């Protein structure tokens, strides 16, 4: 049974954030997939596919973190996994910024 004292620890907060992050990412993947079906292709379609792949990897990282981080005996591997997720998170933000920039530019051209 889960009690309030076990949730209010750093480990409990970690698991709560990971579960919520995985749920949010799963919903975002569904939304992105539905948007991809509405875009015929070109630059926007290609970059939306790239964004979906990053979302999928984030979903895998979050579910993996929930199940495996606490069982790792090697703290260096934990640091590596967390660092890799943060690094690719930064790359993902760059991809989203590039996507939005070009989307706005295409919308301005087609006014």
Fraction in beta strands:
under 5%
Order of helices and strands: HHHH
Tell me, briefly, the overall form.
Answer: elongated
Gap between N and C termini: 58 Å
DSSP summary: helix tally: 4
Unreliable residue stretches:
none
Q: Kindly name the structural category.
A: mainly alpha
Total separate domains: 1
Mean pLDDT equals: 78
**In oligomeric terms, what are we looking at?**
single chain
List the SSEs and their pairings.
Elements: H1 4-7, H2 10-38, H3 42-68, H4 75-109
Helix pairs in contact: 2-3, 3-4
Task: Report on this structure.
With 111 residues, this protein is mostly helical. It has one domain (4-109). It is built from four helices and no strands. It starts with a helix and ends with a helix. The mean pLDDT is 78.
Name some characteristics of this structure.
elongated, 111 residues, mainly alpha, 4 helices, single chain
Question: What is this entry, summarized?
Answer:
The protein is mainly alpha-helical. 86% of the residues lie in helices and 0% in strands. It has one domain (4-109).
């Amino acid at each position: 049974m889960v009690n309030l004292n076990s949730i209010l620890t750093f480990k409990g907060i970690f698991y709560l954030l990971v579960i919520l992050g995985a749920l949010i990412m799963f919903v975002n993947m569904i939304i992105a997939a539905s948007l991809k079906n509405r875009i015929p292709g070109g630059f926007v379609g290609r970059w939306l596919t790239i964004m979906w792949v990053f979302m999928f990897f984030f979903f895998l990282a979050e579910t993996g973190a929930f199940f495996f981080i606490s069982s790792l005996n090697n703290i260096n591997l934990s640091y590596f996994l967390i660092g890799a997720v943060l690094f690719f998170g930064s790359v993902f933000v760059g991809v989203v910024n590039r996507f939005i920039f070009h989307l706005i530019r295409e919308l301005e051209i087609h006014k």
